[in-house]
Amino acid sequence: MVIPRLSSLLPCRKWAKSDWLVASIGCVLIVFFLSFFFDPASDSVPSVDRSPTITFPPDLVKLKLSSKAKERGAFCLDGSLPGYHFDKGSGSGSKSWILHLEGGGWCNTIASCSARATTKLGSSKYFEQEVTFEGVLGNDPSQNPGFYNWNRVKIRYCDGASFAGRPEAEFKNETRLFFRGQLIWEAIVDELLLMGMSNAKQAILTGCSAGGLAALIHCDYFRDHLPKDAAVKCVSDGGFFLNVPDVLGDPTMRSFYNDVVNLQGVGKSLDQNRVAKTEPSKRMFPHEFVNNIRTPVFLVNAAYDFWQIQHVLVPASADKDKSWAKCRLKLKECDASQMKVLHGFRSSLMDAIGKFHQSKVGGMFVDSCFSHCQTTKPMTWHSPTSPRIENKTIAESVGDWYFNRKPVKLIDCAYPCNPSCYNMNFT
Ligand SMILES: *[C@@H]1O[C@H](CO)[C@@H](O)[C@H](O)[C@H]1NC(C)=O
Ligand SMILES: *[C@@H]1O[C@H](CO)[C@@H](O)[C@H](O)[C@H]1NC(C)=O
């Protein structure tokens, strides 16, 4: 069911500019899966076993549609009920909760949101009935040493605005689109509180990509709805989107975010992070509010984040002569001048997190890999072959920081210095 729909998105470059981010989700997914399944031996892979023997059966977790959603008016883009997957904690983890917010781009126009409403990123009609929990959500102590026995929740993304849209922005005409991301978030938190989260002693809000951004946007809300004495922190993976121009000098990402904020009424949700003085088109960039978040935050981000390179820095629309065609898919194909541009992107990230780096309670793991969403797969989260900085995996780094074992501010040297990187190859 999903495959034909995604393949219909394959001619990525034929899409209208306004639709490119949505189309690109399809393209990225396809390329991602193709490259994973048909080219597991991509570059920079050390000559070790990339798929460690699975000692635990896959952790398949059933979908639950939210019971609180209807009364709160919390709906996916198409009006269907939102949902989540919940795996109950046990033993020493029974009063600990980790919530993961799913990612998957955004929609910025009526057309792209309408298209999205007919996919699993806009409607629960298309959700999988069960998903595998792995990486930071896994139940195998050898793959997820810190959190394997916690209550683990994956909240599905079906609103298109990082769980932050508002009904006030909906159209009062036949355009049938629900902008209820903020309500989905609030309804599911309510429901989880009733399921035992109100007694939490430890809790983490995390998420990847658009969900990593959502984890930052909602971090203080999460903190404020949990017991005062609970240790609450947030981990944003691949969510630090940068306000940088593309290679043609156009503000592609800024105008895209501006459209998302205006279309879905995200402004009010962002206000909780005290961005009122910031120009509306900039408010969705984490750089603008990460230092205002009161709750401790950990940033996991690749300095050569492939999603940002392919959509923020070198979107297909900015590569008309296709001179970047190979390099944006595989870093080894980049020439010296392109590498310079990519190092410049890394410098922009360093500048953007400069002040956050001074934070006493914050933590970070910024590797120099061509990667994106590194906490959700065992091979990048915690395995004998996963990326390391100072010989520590992401799981060990997040664990050291969360459990206050030591401060963690890990910043990798520039590409290609880190041989443990899992660099994606999309060619
Ligand atoms: C509904 O209103 C919006 C905003 O005014 C407009 O862009 C859209 O085309 C309208 N839809 C219909 C079906 O009239
Ligand atoms: C790196 O860590 C592993 C275990 O996590 C350890 O076996 C190895 O000796 C460490 N290597 C160095 C160079 O410290």
From TrEMBL:
Leading EC class: hydrolase
Pfam families, sorted: PAE (PF03283)
Domain of life, source organism: Eukaryota
The enzyme's E.C. designation: 3.1.1.-
Keyword field: Cell wall, Cell wall biogenesis/degradation, Hydrolase, Membrane, Secreted, Transmembrane, Transmembrane helix
Functional note: Hydrolyzes acetyl esters in homogalacturonan regions of pectin. In type I primary cell wall, galacturonic acid residues of pectin can be acetylated at the O-2 and O-3 positions. Decreasing the degree of acetylation of pectin gels in vitro alters their physical properties.
UniProt-recorded name of the protein: Pectin acetylesterase
Taxonomic placement: Eukaryota, Viridiplantae, Streptophyta, Embryophyta, Tracheophyta
Subcellular location: Secreted, Cell wall
Transmembrane domains' residue ranges: 20-38
Chain segments annotated as coiled-coil in the UniProt record: none
Taxonomic source organism: Microthlaspi erraticum
Listed GO MF terms: hydrolase activity
Family matches, as SUPFAM superfamilies: alpha/beta-Hydrolases
One of the GO BP terms on file: cell wall organization
